[in-house]
Design a protein that fits this description.
The protein folds into four domains: about 120 residues, RRM (RNA recognition motif) domain (Alpha-Beta Plaits); about 140 residues, RRM (RNA recognition motif) domain (Alpha-Beta Plaits, 2-Layer Sandwich); about 90 residues, RRM (RNA recognition motif) domain (Alpha-Beta Plaits, 2-Layer Sandwich); about 80 residues, 2-Layer Sandwich (Alpha-Beta Plaits). The protein is an alpha+beta fold and about 475 residues long. Helix 5 packs across helix 6. It contains ten helices and 24 strands.
């Protein structure tokens, strides 16, 4: 029974009473599903520690579920909001976090061995809370040394909010990110839930390259104790507030508050911080290794290698595509460089195409094998290495700076002067509903077109990129950050 009134937690049928008067409301009890049967109390508690003091835990190994009781509802709400936007993992397996229907945990009737294990894990977790340095239990939104100022030097490739989150969240819960450019230098402010995580990230990542020989991280502590994020978009993100609007941009940061040069960390090095640092470095290494993506949950009736080449080509140069013969809803997509594969996975995972959300992970394969000569393939494997449609062939191309997540608004370019608005909207309306259209005032070769949804825009981009508008002009289509 999922999140039921009484839960059987032992072979003997011991019952634990759970107050079920809070159904459908926010609660300080958090319910966690899809937990591995051999997961430990400490691993589950670690999901909640960054957001406040954990006061109780109930781990139901036989049901692959767990309950965490936080000290207050604010901490639980921050935790649930955060994991509604960021996938929670235990031992590399995704788990699902939601409010429990129960107002509190009452585990007095749990077996003694289980109670002892829970209490030991709770006691160990409290030693990680920064209470002795001025923070209070449940105080998760800022504090001394929780905000890092990061400068990215030698930025040959784009560094997005999503890439920053993937790198820094390996050291702890990242609550907020703000990016901005100052003196032609890309900078970002990153707020962690606790000082230990911020220090671990600084010690491990300062001076490291995101990509080989470029995008070098220079990290200091910020004077700011909390970040005020107004919008969730490609420039800023508050992972505890998924309800924020997308807006146009983040208000400027006071330069005097941005950083404190050479400020020492408050906390000494800890084993948990070292473990997090090692995990983060492993992640950074993974970002530099894999060029092949495993794409599943495809619409087997509509997907083709050309469709995947065009969609993934928005984020990198696709060299090869292979739709699996025995499982045509799954494909391998090989991009030119690892960071392109990472960018494509970040932006496209979960996006709907042909009615189904894409599921994307890094593949264990280092390249996509072409079929042997004479071997039947039914056209499911294609080599696009020499395609003239690659967007990123030139190093430092401006296309690198115009990479945006899928949106309902598409950017069109290479439009011939004799092509009218009616010509374009008529062609796009075959692939969805056209809500708005606008030529650029200063350059009529470009325009914006708004489709009825992100999914319709994906369909339209796949169909209309490289669409022939005249004898010598083919339309170029990409996702836009703007709206009409």
């Amino acid at each position: 029974m999922m999140d039921g009134i009484a839960v059987d937690i032992s072979a003997a049928g011991t019952k634990v009473k759970l107050d079920n008067k809070n159904a459908g409301k926010a609660s300080r009890v958090v319910h966690i599903r899809n937990v591995l049967s051999d997961a430990t109390e400490s691993e589950i508690i670690s999901l909640g520690v960054p957001f406040g003091r954990v006061t109780n835990i109930l781990l139901l190994k036989g049901k692959n579920q767990a309950f965490l009781e936080m000290e207050n509802e604010t901490a639980a709400t921050t935790m649930v909001n955060y994991y509604s936007h960021v996938t929670a993992n235990v031992r590399g397996k995704p788990v699902y976090v939601q409010f429990s229907n129960h107002k509190e945990l009452k585990t007095e009737n749990a077996p003694a061995q289980q109670t002892a294990a829970a209490q030991a894990a709770l006691a160990a977790a409290q030693s990680l809370m920064p209470q002795s340095h001025g923070a209070q239990p449940g105080d998760t939104l800022g504090g001394q040394n929780t905000v890092l100022r990061v400068i990215v030097e030698n930025m040959l490739y784009p560094v997005t909010v999503d890439i920053l989150h993937q790198i820094f969240s390996k050291f702890g819960a990242v609550l907020k990110i703000i990016t901005f450019t100052k003196n032609n230098t890309f900078q970002t402010l990153i707020q962690f839930a606790d000082s230990v995580s911020a220090q671990a990230a600084k010690l491990s990542l300062d001076g490291q390259n995101i990509y080989n020989a470029c995008c070098t991280l220079r990290i200091d502590y910020s004077k700011l104790t909390t970040l005020n994020v107004k919008y969730n978009n490609e420039k800023s993100r508050d992972y505890t507030r998924p309800d924020l609007p997308s807006g146009d941009g983040q208000p400027p940061i006071d330069p005097a508050m941005a950083y404190v040069p050479g400020m020492p960390g408050i906390f000494p090095a800890m084993p948990t911080a070292a473990a997090a640092a090692a995990a983060g470095l492993r992640m950074a290494g993974q970002m530099q290794q894999g060029c092949v993506l495993l794409v599943s949950n495809l619409n087997a009736e509509l997907v083709t290698p050309e469709v995947l080449f065009t969609l993934f080509g928005v984020y990198g140069d696709v060299h090869r595509v292979k739709i699996i013969f025995a499982k045509k809803d799954t494909a391998l997509v090989q991009l030119a460089e690892p960071h392109q594969a990472q960018t494509a996975m970040t932006h496209l995972n979960g996006v709907k195409m042909f009615g189904k959300p894409l599921r994307i992970t890094l593949s264990k394969h280092q390249l996509v094998q072409l079929p042997k000569e004479g071997q039947p393939d039914a056209g499911l494997t294609k080599d696009f290495t020499s395609s003239p449609l690659h967007r990123f062939k030139k190093p430092g191309s401006k296309n690198f700076m115009n990479i945006y997540p899928p949106s309902a608004t598409l950017h069109l370019s290479n439009i011939p002067p004799n092509v009218t608005e009616q010509d374009i909207t008529s062609a796009f309306s075959r692939h969805g509903s056209v809500k708005a259209f606008k030529f650029f005032q200063k350059d009529r070769k470009m325009a914006l077109i708004q489709m009825g949804s992100v999914e319709e825009a994906v369909t339209a981009l796949v169909a209309m990129h490289n669409y022939q508008l005249s004898n010598s002009s083919h339309l170029r289509v990409s996702f836009s950050k703007a709206t009409i």
